[in-house]
Amino acid sequence: MGLVGGKAAGAWITRQAVRRGLLGSSRLWFAAFVAQGAVKLARRALGPRQPTTVLEERLEPGAGIEVRHLNRDRG
Fold it and tell me: Is 27 within a domain?
């Protein structure tokens, strides 16, 4: 499954900005790279996004689930 909706366009712009602006010599694409980074930092600073559903499954009678959380620093 590919990227959904506007995310595909954003990923393309990011790739072009890195390739042509950061690694190349285009000032316009470098400005796009800097703007994209600023937007990403602003979103992170504004707080967490709405939680997203990671997994959804139907349980049969008698089936069970186990929910575990691993600390990021422990791997």
Answer: yes
